[in-house]
Amino acid sequence: MSTLPAPSIAASAAAAAPAAPAAPAIELVVLDMAGTTVVDDGVVEQAFARVADRVDLGPTVTRDEALQHVRDTMGQSKIEVFRHLTGGDEPLAQRANEQFEMAYGELVDELGVEPIAGAGDLVDALRASGRSVVLTTGFSPATRDRLLDALGWSVDAALSPVDAGRGRPAPDLVLTALLRTGASSVAAVAVVGDTTSDVLSGRAAGAGLVVGVTTGAHTREQLLAAGADVVLDSVRELAGLPQFAGVAVPAAAPVAAPAAVAVPVA
Questions:
Q1: Which CATH class is domain 43-111?
Q2: What is the pLDDT of residue 103?
Q3: CATH topology of domain 28-41+114-244
Q4: Is the pLDDT assigned to residue 158 strictly greater than 90?
Q5: Helix (H, G, I), strand (E, B) or coil at 158
Q6: Residue ranges of the chain assigned to CATH 1.10.150
Q7: Is 55 in a helix, a strand, or coil?
Q8: Which of 238, 75, 245 is nearest to 169 (CA)?
Q9: What is the rounded CA–CA span in Å between residue 37 and residue 61?
């Protein structure tokens, strides 16, 4: 009489192991602004270039080195960037930061503000689905609010480093967004951005989902290396991820449609 082979220890353990718990549903989406939801097209770099023309940043770095540092630290608090460039000279860093805010405002007046295609529809769809949406940025509150007023979007909060304590890549902006909206846990938070600083901030906060987008400063490879769970071609594609099943975003306009017109700022 033949006998069946005894099950292996590994197979028995696998059968006895409880199923992994389902990931918490996403309750809060933290979205970066410039390069992620708002078209940048080098405006931040142009503003820094104007600062370099108006303010002697000292002998710490050359102009080319300063601009490269700006590119490398996209997404971080602008005052922290200037503290580095000025070698820790606080009065000089503050003066340079004030000039940056002024220069960026000038460029907004000259060029207008244009959202990333579909970003406004995504914000509306996420909030209609019951999720909270918070915008975060390395800009000062004055510049941030100027952009938001021009866009005309309704969000649950908009945060700058001064609102949270530290800018990116620290987790403070993400954690402040969680506290402001009452999300149940960091696992229920999705963080979306175009820079490695955005990704590192989301990872440091313990966010359940960290998404990179390639419409801004850094490449797909850089974003993945920083720890992004997934990298999308545009923030609009967020609704296609399984974590956002049921979020309905209107179809994109045909390619032949006229380009979006920049929204002027009064």
A1: mainly alpha
A2: 87
A3: Rossmann fold (3.40.50)
A4: yes
A5: strand
A6: 43-111
A7: coil
A8: 75
A9: 31
Give the length of the chain: 266
- Output the six-digit token pair for 195: 């820079």
Q: Which of 108, 172, 198 is CA-nearest to residue 146?
A: 108
Taking each helix axis from N to C terminus, what angle separates 43-54 and 63-72, rounded to the nearest 10 degrees?
150
CA–CA–CA angle 51, 101, 56 (5° rounding): 25
Quote the tokens at residue 34: 């410039």
CA distance 194 to 38: 11
**Residues 214, 231 contacting (CB under 8 angstroms):** yes
Phi, psi of 76 (to 5 degrees): -85, 165
Residues forming beta bridges with residue 30, ordered by sequence position: 134, 191
Q: Which of 145, 232, 243, 228 is nearest to 191 (CA)?
A: 228
The token pair at 53 is 């023309």
- CB contact set of 37 (below 8 Å; sequence gap of 6+): 31, 115, 116, 119, 123, 135, 235
Q: What is the pLDDT of residues 5-29, one digit of tens each?
A: 555 554 444 455 554 455 678 999 9
Q: Which two tokens stand for residue 20?
A: 């992994």
Give me the helices (H) in 90-157, please: 90-111, 119-128, 141-151
pTM for the full predicted model: 0.77
Are 195 and 218 in contact, with CB atoms under 8 Å apart? yes
Please list the residue range(s) of the chain that carry CATH number 3.40.50.1000: 28-41+114-244
